[in-house]
Amino acid sequence: MAAVDLTTHPGHLARRLQQAHYLLWNTMVSEEITSPQFAVLNALVAEPGLDQRTVGERVGLDRSTIAEVISRLGRRGLLDKVRDPQDGRRFLLRLTDDGVRTHRKLTVRTARMNQVFLAPLSDDEQSRFFELIRRVADAAEGLRNPAEPLVSPR
Amino acid sequence: MAAVDLTTHPGHLARRLQQAHYLLWNTMVSEEITSPQFAVLNALVAEPGLDQRTVGERVGLDRSTIAEVISRLGRRGLLDKVRDPQDGRRFLLRLTDDGVRTHRKLTVRTARMNQVFLAPLSDDEQSRFFELIRRVADAAEGLRNPAEPLVSPR
DNA sequence: CTGGAATACTCAGTGCACTGAGCAACGGAG
DNA sequence: CTCCGTTGCTCAGTGCACTGAGTATTCCAG
Hints:
- By secondary structure, chain A is mainly alpha-helical.
- Chain A is 62% helix and 6% strand.
């Protein structure tokens, strides 16, 4: 006894949602490029020349994970990594032509997949869905990210 | 140009939601036991003596992942694994006293964490949140799981 | 009762995700 | 100009998650 109903546990639901998405992505979008990899390509289409850390911030990946994702994309020739002449710590990232092409192709497929994925919801429900998830995720991020206070932090 | 807004991509939102949850779990519930591990404990509290595959089904993990999770829980002495005398392929799983105690302790903390996690939403919004996610996840699962048809499949 | 399909599990390989520790480059205070 | 703290990145270690291939057991058809 004393077992709990996991369908009211947001963490469990989030995991199942992501698994479902992973599966659909693999069948409808690409088996080569994963969703986080696409997010990185997308960030670099929007802002070419970003450094590694900032890309990580944009797509929500920590320093270690983003390093691996980027190294994989680099190995496949989808992006270039150049040391910043202004700041020898940074690597500046830029998509190759192949990277841009890949991003364009996946954008179309991703849109199709999202449509299928969200088909069980009406348009109204879809916006609510986005909004609710975003609010929960943002709030939780704020909890661990002290979000520099307006007055002196120390 | 042609970059896409990831905040309307359910996959990206799901990933961010799970990350936020992971963080909160680590600080508010446990650094030793992860959320999937708790799900397995919970399944075995509800139905002691399940086999590995069925536990995986209950919590939504594939054969390989469930094997690893269970081996970790076994190493920590939270569950026992016995060959089924009726069917030599199966392992029957059962929590140890320590496993039951751990589950009880985490149940309380998990409830507290869920409350904090969902605090940005009103009660009404919380049920809508659950329902929307569940519907999308269930539908996507149904897509790849042909869900044995009523008439002969072949 | 025997041979083959189905089932439960294992193993190897890939990829995401985080932490903690370490290194090198930068940049400001003295 | 020299310390020293901060910052960008790497590396090692742990854990989740999936696929494809392989082993052993069971079960059913003939």
